[in-house]
């Protein structure tokens, strides 16, 4: 799986053969087929592991009764950016190579992505009800704006840049909650 | 170019052959090679046309002396979302197939993307100086948050959805400028 992630990210899914993967590991194709039915199944496993880890962490954050909704939104944004730092390759494969999944697998992954988005939307709606958030915005657009800002960081976030993932998340959530405008 | 855009978006760049493109148009490969040296050159032309149109429109917005900085930020976000509505396929190819450009071409495109981002950052810095925007945020993070929210919409914006591109841009810019928090 690690060799697949490395090669899919560097060369692209289509340009990587099972031979490339086993060559990198010094094993035979038989070893590959012992674990995966096909290259597509390996891609599916990478996608599944990525989104399931995100969903599990999101659940833990949302269920924490000691935190405000605002704090939970911060935790989710921080998780996404931190995850991109830790798992940059998986993130890029997740967003870029999804079209190579077969129809059944794609459906499963899209359902889980939708669930992640929907969980965040429920949280934002809760904030609109309990008075933490404005209630004059469509919750779906608020959700997609938060997710877009955070997810886009896989395009630009540099773990060795001037700001840490924590500082980036802090400023980004300050913008999303308080706005860029001078009050 | 239109056939290339359609096929690259549906099948992916690697899975599309020059034969597929000329078959779609009912012409010969000779016709293709009259206009493009290679499939990669066609991809470069698609990328170039996409980013140059964005840069040109951005320049027009920024140079309009009748608008405030906030209005210009709105215009830029609206342009990006509107462009995704109008040119969804190009947008998806732009973000997804960039890795298939050769080194020289990739360098040129990345320079133009960087320029688009930098122009927006200069605008935001101007807003911080003239008192329209908070000056306690790193301008680079403010820029990437705005761009991320808008660009991510190529993943989800549905031209036939409940909200028009104008309404989506209006709510998104309201979030970015004023924040989600209840005042």
UniProtKB/TrEMBL annotation, chains A, B:
Residues 17-36 bind DNA. This is TetR family transcriptional regulator. It comes from Parageobacillus galactosidasius. Residues 1-54 form the HTH tetR-type domain. It comes from the Bacteria. PROSITE patterns: HTH_TETR_1, HTH_TETR_2. It holds the Pfam family TetR_N. The keyword Lipid biosynthesis does not apply. Gene3D superfamilies: Homeodomain-like, Tetracycline Repressor, domain 2. Keywords: DNA-binding. One of its GO terms (molecular function) is DNA binding.
